[in-house]
Design goal:
By secondary structure, the chain is of the alpha+beta class. The protein has a single domain, classed as Phosphorylase Kinase, domain 1 (2-Layer Sandwich). The protein has helices at 10-26, 46-53, 58-70, 108-118, 131-151, 191-207, and strands at residues 2-3, 73-82, 86-93, 98-104, 159-163, 166-170, 173-174, 177-178, 211-212. The strands form three sheets. Strands 2-3-4-6-5 form a five-stranded antiparallel sheet, with helices on both faces. A two-stranded antiparallel ribbon has the order 1-9.
Amino acid sequence: MGEFDEESEDDIEDFIDEEERKFDTNIDQLEKKAIDYNRIRKIDQSKKRAVIESVFDERTIFHLNRLIVNGPLERVEGVISAGKEANVYLAYDTNGKEVAIKIYKIDSNTSRWMRNYIVGDPRFKKIPHNVSKTIFLWASKEFKNLKRAYKVGLSVPEPIHVRNNILIMEYIGFESIPAPLLKDIRKPKDPLQLFSEILNFIKELYNKAKLVHGDL
């Protein structure tokens, strides 16, 4: 999504810099036993191990553990979906409610794609050259865009929290079974009605939230 109004990124830059300092200060002192791996439930099957390890680098585990120790998370379960830029996981908050966690991959390919995507966008006064900072900035903007769309009553997951490359949002599904993606609905009951709803969403996204989806 893209915003029409220009927003300052200084607060996000300050936040990212502070998180970098906290990480650099604390990671050397953090013993492995301080990370509660039992509550970050990695699936042992070899076919899923690569999917998990593609986003669970040392830094992400460190910050994910902080979200578990300090809230709002209670535990992380299995993979909902895996993509080129991010993986989505099922998790539970401290009240036992299902939530979705989107974890962006920290790699140069993802960062390069994001940089190319936002070059020329007036929202971004400063585009970091650092790979991690670029992805942290992207996650923060995704959170803010979701928050804006949700606030005006659009049908989007409620954004809950963002930290670095970790975005926590409302889980759309029932009893650990995620709702199907639009592309996976083979035979909608009323195709014309569904098409009308999509067009109306696009219109309201523009008129109410002042956003345009980047894939349109």
